[in-house]
Specification:
about 525 residues, Aldehyde Dehydrogenase, Chain A, domain 1, Aldehyde Dehydrogenase, Chain A, domain 2, 2 domains, five-stranded parallel β-sheet, about 35% helix, about 20% strand
Length: about 525
C-alpha cells in the first residue's frame, strides 16, 4: 500500500477487527513522530470570534501515556472570555441561521473533507492526549468524518425538516418550520474527544445555532484542532467559539444568560444538575441534551459461541481502558458455561498487551489521570473486602508504567449479587461476573440499575434473542458480536440513545432523530391577498 496516498488505505472502524491494517500502521509510523515534534508542547489559545484569545489562566497538560511529555499550554477561559464568546455567538448566529440549511450542509461537508485530509495527524494527537490505542484513535476520527457526513445527509434528505401542511381556507398557505434555538453551549468529555465533540457541535451548527464549546481539560489539544477545522472549512467567525477550562469555565457556560440550550456528555451527576439548573432553572425551559454514562450488561447463555463471547466481552470491557460510557462492565454467565467462560476470560485478560499505545500491538494504554486510578484501585479493594476474587486489578510499575496510570484489567467473580459494584459506573477496566440460570430473571436483574445505555447477548437460540430484544431496558442492543459485546456504534448504522439515567432525551445520537432536537417547531399560516 502506498503510504504517500493515505486516502487509499483501509478505513478503520470499531468492527472490522480482522482486516489487514499493515499499510495503515506503516503510514502512522511516520505521522506519530512528526506530530510529537511539531504539534505537542505548543501554545494553544482559545478561539473566540475567529481570533486567538489568551484571557484566563494558563493550563499545561501532560500526556497520560508519559507525564514527561507536554501536550501543550492552554488557557482556562475566565468569565470575561466566556462573555465575549457568547456575545460573538449572539452576533453571528442570525446570519448563520439565515444562510439556509443547504449552505450549512455544504460548509459542514467541507469540514468533513478538511478533517479527512488531517485524519492521521488528529488521530495521533488523540492518541497522545487520551492514551488510546492506534486503532481506537484512528477509528474515532474515521467515525467523526462519518458523523458529519451522516448528519449533513439527514438534513439534506429531510430538506431542513420543513413540511408543507394541509390548507383549510382558500388562499391560505400553511407550513411547519424547524428553527434554531440560538446559541448552544457544548461541553464534551475526554474519552472520545473528537467524535463526541463533533457529534454535538455539528448537529447544533447544521440546525443553525451558534456554539460556545468547551472540551474536557484532558482534551484541549483536540479541541483546538477541531476549532481550526471548522474555521478552515468556512464556519464564520463567532459561529463556533472555543473556550477551554475546567469546572469553573463549564459553570460559566451553563449559567450564562445568553445560553439557549446545552449539549453535554459526561457523568450522571453533572447531567442531572444541568437538567435542573439549565433546563428548568430559568424563566422558561431550555433544551438539555445530555448523555450520562452506563452500567452495561451482557448475557452469555448456554447456547452461546464462547469464542465470540470472550472476544466481545474483552474488547468492550477493556478497550480504551474501560473508559467508555458503553463499556461492558457486568457479564451475566449461565450456569452451564460459567466456569469455562470465566477461565477463558481470565486467560484473555492476562493476554492483553498493556503499554505505550503508540506501539502497534498495544491494546490497553493508561487511565486518564490519578482520580481514575484511585477510583479503580478503591473498587478492587472493595471487591476483595466483600469476599470476591479479583483476577488482575493491579497497578503496574517499571519502565513507562512509572510515568502514567497503568493497570492490569480486573475480572471480578464471587461478588455478592447486591453489591454496588454491579450497579455503579466506574469508567475503568473492571468487569464483574454474575451467574444466572433463567435468562428472563437475569435480564430483570440487569435492568435494575439507574442506567440504560447499551446491553448485549451471546446466544444461539432465537427465543433467547427475542426475549433479550423485547425486555432489555437500554437504547442500544447488540447480539453475538465478537467485535464488541456492548460497544461499537457507528453513525448511520447504529443509533446511540440513553434510556433512564443514561440520557435526558428519547432520541439518540448517530441517527436521523438527533438533529431536530437542536431546533424548535414553528408553524406559519399566511393568507395571500386576493388578486
Amino acid at each position: 500500500m502506498n503510504a504517500e496516498n493515505p486516502r487509499d488505505l483501509p478505513r478503520v472502524t470499531y468492527s472490522n477487527i480482522r482486516e489487514d491494517f499493515s499499510g495503515v500502521h506503516d503510514h502512522f509510523d511516520g505521522v506519530l513522530p512528526r506530530v510529537r515534534e511539531t504539534m505537542l508542547g505548543q501554545d494553544q489559545p482559545n478561539l473566540i470570534d475567529g481570533q486567538d484569545d489568551r484571557a484566563g489562566a494558563e493550563m499545561t497538560a501532560q500526556s497520560p501515556i508519559d507525564r514527561r511529555l507536554t501536550l501543550g499550554r492552554f488557557v482556562a477561559a475566565d468569565a470575561d472570555a466566556v462573555n465575549r464568546a457568547f456575545a460573538a455567538a449572539r452576533r453571528a448566529q442570525p446570519e448563520w441561521a439565515a444562510s439556509g440549511w443547504a449552505h450549512r450542509v455544504a460548509v459542514l461537508r467541507k469540514a468533513a473533507d478538511v478533517l479527512e485530509d488531517r485524519k492521521y495527524e488528529v488521530s495521533a494527537a488523540c492518541l497522545f492526549e487520551v492514551g488510546k490505542s492506534r486503532m481506537e484513535a484512528i477509528g474515532e476520527i474515521e467515525e467523526t468524518v462519518d458523523i458529519i457526513r451522516t448528519y449533513a445527509g439527514f438534513m439534506e434528505e429531510a430538506q431542513g425538516f420543513d413540511v408543507d401542511l394541509d390548507r383549510v381556507n382558500p388562499g391560505e398557505e400553511t407550513f411547519d418550520k424547524m428553527r434554531p434555538f440560538g446559541v448552544f453551549g457544548v461541553i464534551a468529555p475526554f474519552n472520545f474527544p473528537v467524535a463526541l465533540s463533533v457529534g454535538m457541535t455539528s448537529a447544533a451548527l447544521l440546525a443553525g445555532n451558534a456554539v460556545v464549546y468547551k472540551p474536557s481539560p484532558d482534551a484541549a489539544l483536540t479541541g483546538r484542532l477541531l476549532a481550526e477545522i471548522y474555521r478552515d472549512a468556512g464556519v464564520p467567525a463567532g459561529v463556533f467559539n472555543l473556550v477551554c477550562g475546567g469546572e469553573e469555565t463549564g459553570r460559566a457556560i451553563a449559567g450564562h444568560p445568553d445560553l439557549d440550550g446545552i449539549a453535554f456528555t459526561g457523568s450522571h451527576r453533572v447531567g442531572m444538575e444541568l437538567l435542573r439548573e439549565v433546563g428548568a432553572g430559568g424563566q422558561h425551559a431550555r433544551p438539555v441534551l445530555a448523555e450520562m454514562g452506563g452500567k452495561n450488561p451482557c448475557y452469555v447463555t448456554g447456547s452461546a459461541t464462547l469464542d465470540d463471547a470472550v472476544s466481545g466481552l474483552v474488547r468492550s470491557a477493556y478497550g480504551l481502558q474501560g473508559q467508555k460510557c458503553s463499556a461492558c462492565s457486568v457479564a451475566f454467565l449461565h450456569d452451564d458455561i460459567h466456569d469455562d467462560a470465566v477461565a477463558r476470560l481470565r486467560d484473555a485478560a492476562n493476554a492483553v498487551k498493556i503499554g505505550d499505545p503508540a506501539e502497534r500491538d498495544v491494546f490497553m494504554g493508561p487511565l486518564i489521570n490519578d482520580t481514575s486510578l484511585d477510583r479503580f484501585l478503591n473498587a478492587v479493594q472493595e471487591a476483595k473486602a466483600a469476599g470476591a476474587t479479583v483476577h488482575g486489578g493491579e497497578r503496574l510499575s517499571g519502565g513507562i508504567y512509572d510515568h502514567g496510570c497503568y493497570v492490569s484489567p480486573a475480572l471480578v467473580t464471587g461478588l455478592p449479587d447486591d453489591h454496588w459494584l454491579h450497579r455503579e459506573e466506574l469508567f475503568a477496566p473492571f468487569l464483574t461476573v454474575r451467574r444466572f440460570s433463567d435468562l428472563a430473571e437475569a435480564i430483570t436483574r440487569g435492568n435494575a440499575v439507574q442506567f440504560g445505555l447499551t446491553a448485549g447477548i451471546y446466544t444461539g437460540d432465537q427465543s433467547e434473542l427475542d426475549l433479550f430484544l423485547n425486555r432489555a431496558a437500554a437504547g442500544a442492543l447488540y447480539a453475538n458480536r465478537p467485535s464488541g459485546a456492548t460497544t461499537g456504534a457507528w453513525p448511520g448504522t447504529q443509533t446511540f440513545c440513553g434510556w433512564k439515567g443514561s440520557g435526558t432525551g428519547s432520541k439518540g445520537g448517530l441517527g436521523a432523530w438527533y438533529l431536530p432536537q437542536f431546533m424548535r417547531e414553528q408553524s406559519h399560516t399566511i393568507m395571500r391577498p386576493a388578486g
